[in-house]
Structures are given as structure tokens and as C-alpha cells.
């Protein structure tokens, strides 16, 4: 029996970008010690009080079907948080709870695009973006944000690519680059969306991890609330990656449509996970700062390490839990550099090419291991790069 063209087309016959990660996991399974700086998985686990609330809720019987849009208490909490941070009036009717941010992205594009519609996204991109767009029936169109422009997208490039498009996907703070889109960049993006009548899907799962500047949700810009779908998640802000609890915030009529889609796909998020998420959000900024503190601290360590050499260049990292490193001075592609370092040093990083053509010649480092081990691994990376650069010279 043949598979559907839809499922065969998710990767369009290409790579999923995770080869180095899979290779490192295979080495670990074979007993080889590997320092993993690949995925955005916290080295701390979900805080005990959140797990205790999850346990309490489950024992209280909240293990059956939960309300598909999400429990009212959680939707109210998410709405209040969004309104306080953006100034845009938000109620539970603007919120649907989803099984993580990834499911939110899929639902957003199922809602925004008809089969075959073009959907723009920014290159470099999180590795699942093009496959998610294809799975939703859209036609992915990458728009490069170039290294020489600080990996910030330009309105003129977006406008040139927007003919016939229905939606644009952005991510700020950005994975993989760590760049934050400021007001000027977001205003250009908003103008393109308004001029070309595009839905804007704004992935804001790193909105609590801000090291320089500030996070601005494009939903807060003039005349953008009615055409913006914001993706949020408990995963990064509260170290709840395995709990799979996220949300979409958008116009009431569109949220009602997404609720219909959820009824016919995932049928909601378990009630005990929603109760734990509500509890976690109720702890406010203090807990979010605690979860983000190790990454801010390691970012400072990275600045110190990288300042002592001149081969590896750091893309200015303003937010999120990653560093994007320019290793073009070695003469290697990001893929070759990552493969060689894994083989020789047993240190795993993600090639820039896993995140699109615009990130070629770079590698992404996740700041997700203990401080001293992270510093040691980064110094080893720099020494490795210096050796390769000497050979290239």
C-alpha cells in the first residue's frame, strides 16, 4: 500500500536537519561519552512544586477528558498574562490550549492556509518549520535573513516574496540565532502583512529569555491584533518540555475555528497538566527568571571564552538558550565542522545548515549543560576551530 502524498511530502524528500543529533545519540547508546550541545532541553527538570501540583490534580481525578479549548482557569491565566505584557485586551475567547507549541504551529497554518497556499518563513529557521507548513498543506517559501544584516529580516525581501502568499511565520527571540526582532524590524514585518493581507504567525516561546533589549509581540502593534496568531508554550519558560502544554492567542472567530480543529485532532490537553501549568504561570516572573538564569549566566561565560580568540565569531545573542557561532574562518561548512568535532572530540553541536542556507558556515550551540562543562566544551570548540583555521591558511 502506498502512503499519502501529504505524508511523503513533509520533508519533500530532503533532510530533517537532525543528522548530527541522531549520530551523537547513537554514539551515547553505544557507550561513547558525548558532550551534547544540540537540543534546547534544560539541564534542570520541572520544578518540584509544579510536579506536586500535577500529582495532586491527577489524584483528585483530573485524568479524564478535559475541555478541548483548555480549562477556563488556564485560559484566563494565559489571557491575563498576555494582556499585561502587550497591553492588548485579551480574554479566554482569544486563547486555545494546545499540546505544546509545535501543535499550535500546525493548527495555526491549518487555519491560515488553504492547500497549496504559499507561507513565508524566515531563514534561518527552527528545523521543523518547513515540514510543519507542508504537513498543513501550505507551500513553504523561505526568505533569507542574512548574516551581514545581523540575521534580521528586511521588509523589502519579505515584500518581494509575498506575492500570492497567505501567511508569514516569524520567531523572536529567535531559534537558532538568539536575535531579537526590535520595533523597527517588527514594524516592517507588520507593514508587509498589512499591505499584502498576510496572516502573521508569531512563535514567541522564548519570550521569557531576554538578555538584551526587550521582547515586543507584533500583536501589540497598530492594527495587528486581528491578523496575528501568537504561539506560546510552557516548555522553555518553565522547563516543562515533556508536559506538552502550549497555546495560540488570536482573534475570537479564528480561535473558535481552531477549537473545532482540536476537537477533530488531539482532543485537548490532560487536565492535570493544565492545572500544573496554571500553577506554574501563577508563580509569575520570579520563576521564569529562575528557569532562564543558567542560560544568561552561560552566555556571559561564552563571551569571556570567545573574547580570548579571533577565529570563532559570536552572532550577538540577545535571547533564548542558544549561541550561533560563525566558523567560516575554518574553511569548513557548518555540517563538516560539526561532524569532524563529533568524531574527534565527542562534542555535538548543530550545523547551521540544519536551520537553512542563510546559516551556512555557522554552528548552533545549546547552552544546556552545567557551567564548567559548558565552558570546557566551548574552549575545546575554539581550539578545534583554531587548528582547522591554521590548516585552511
UniProtKB/TrEMBL annotation:
InterPro entries: Aminotransferase_I/II_large, AspAT/PAT-like, PyrdxlP-dep_Trfase, PyrdxlP-dep_Trfase_major. Keywords: Aminotransferase, Pyridoxal phosphate, Transferase. It comes from the Bacteria. It is an enzyme of class 2 (transferase). The keyword Transferase applies. It catalyses: L-aspartate + 2-oxoglutarate = oxaloacetate + L-glutamate. Its cofactor is pyridoxal 5'-phosphate. Pfam families: Aminotran_1_2 (PF00155). One of its GO terms (molecular function) is transaminase activity. Residues 36-380 form the Aminotransferase class I/classII large domain. Its EC number is 2.6.1.1. Belongs to the class-I pyridoxal-phosphate-dependent aminotransferase family. PANTHER family: ASPARTATE AMINOTRANSFERASE (PTHR46383). This is aspartate transaminase. It comes from Sulfitobacter dubius.
